[in-house]
Amino acid sequence: MAQWPVAMQMYCWSQHYAKTKQRLEDNLDEALRETAAAGFKVVETSLSVASTPAAAEAFKGLLNKHGLQACALFHGGIYHEKGAAGKVVEQTVEFARAAHAVGIQAIDVNPQPKPGKAPKTDEELKIQCDYLNKVGRALKDMGLEFWVHNHDPEALNNAREIRADGDMTDPSVVHLCLDTHWVLRGGAQPLPLLRELAPRVKALHLRNSVNGVWSEALGDGDIDHRAMCRLLREVGFTGWLIAELAYEAKTVQTRSLTENLRLSREYVRQVFGV
Hints:
Layout: E1 6-9, H1 11-18, H2 28-37, E2 42-46, H3 53-65, E3 69-75, H4 82-99, E4 106-109, H5 122-142, E5 145-149, H6 152-167, E6 175-179, H7 180-185, H8 190-197, E7 201-206, E8 209-210, E9 213-214, H9 225-235, E10 240-243, H10 257-272
Parallel strand pairs: 1-2, 1-10, 2-3, 3-4, 4-5, 5-6, 6-7, 7-10
Antiparallel strand pairs: 8-9
Helix pairs in contact: 4-5
């Protein structure tokens, strides 16, 4: 039976602290402590927390304090415009060089969409993929993987941009982190897309909704995770399962974030067996 590694994306903690106009970066000790208390052993968070040698050392110290590891760190930036993309490549590689000391496996990026979620032109997608390749090659030289993440704009138009990021990049240096619920929000079907792109996928971000509204904890709902589990076994998936809670205006919150994370971890254990 597959033994997929499991992690938690810490975006939900950014939302949590934003309610009181605070930043996750200033509350990492508490957030990591509560994440560990919820049963997670591995996290993914923003590359900004380890973007300098001093920040990376401090972050690694907090991970060690709470018995945690980090599998990947997340970053953004414009990749479809040459001038901006060149600067993003330099910054991402510079930050990754510092963050490598944390012991991460990968850098995970989401190329910035155009205003209003307008589709990128064929030429813009070619430029984007050329620069993704540049980052991927630089990270591979460091011994790091490079994952390309999606939100809903990339899943629009039958997942045109997600497919382009797979089809037009070097598979030896650029991989995908498929965010299955953002795929759904973009109008595509996550399971058929996962089947199609499985050889390129190194990680999944897992969230669910009930009747279109994001769930308080990861659980059953609009995406059939049991069918997803069967598909992952069928295609021989060996990547990460990364739970990522997020809350929107219609989400009804009745429990603490720590309890919702605990329930989410238990759900992954029950459904995926890990």
